[in-house]
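User: Just a sanity check before I run the rest of the batch. Below are the C-alpha cells for the first item. I only need the designed sequence back.
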C-alpha cells in the first residue's frame, strides 16, 4: 500500500485515501466502572466484528491508569467505518458504554504499512 499524497491544493482525493483505516478511541471510565466497561466492550465487540468491513478490534488499558483505555479498530476502508459511525446500530450498541465513561475522544488514521514480527504469536 502506498501513502496518500496531496494534490496541488494540498488535499488528498478519495481514491488516494482508499484502503484500511484504524480508529483509536481514547476513553476514561467513571470511577468503579472499569470491570463492567471491559465486559460490556467484549459483548459489543462480538457484534461489531460481524459487520462488513470490520477487520480487527482491540481493547487496551493504560498500565499506569486503570481507568484509561484505548479501543483500536481496523476497518477495510473509511467509508464503512463512517457508515457504522452514523448508524442507529452503533448508537444502540454503545449506549451502555457512554453511561460508563467519563470522557472519550476519537481519531481515525490511514494505515500505511504493517510489519508483523518474525514470530507473531496469537493473542
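Assistant: Here's the designed sequence for the first item:
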Amino acid at each position: 500500500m502506498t501513502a496518500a499524497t496531496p494534490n496541488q491544493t494540498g488535499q488528498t482525493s478519495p481514491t488516494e485515501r482508499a484502503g484500511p483505516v484504524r480508529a483509536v478511541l481514547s476513553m476514561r471510565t467513571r470511577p468503579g466502572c472499569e470491570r463492567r466497561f471491559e465486559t460490556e466492550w467484549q459483548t459489543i465487540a462480538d457484534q461489531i466484528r460481524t459487520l462488513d468491513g470490520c477487520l480487527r478490534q482491540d481493547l487496551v488499558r493504560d498500565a499506569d491508569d486503570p481507568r484509561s483505555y484505548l479501543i483500536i479498530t481496523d476497518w477495510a476502508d473509511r467509508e464503512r467505518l463512517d457508515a457504522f459511525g452514523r448508524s442507529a446500530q452503533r448508537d444502540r450498541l454503545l449506549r451502555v458504554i457512554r453511561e460508563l465513561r467519563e470522557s472519550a475522544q476519537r481519531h481515525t488514521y490511514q494505515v500505511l504499512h504493517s510489519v508483523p514480527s518474525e514470530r507473531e504469536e496469537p493473542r
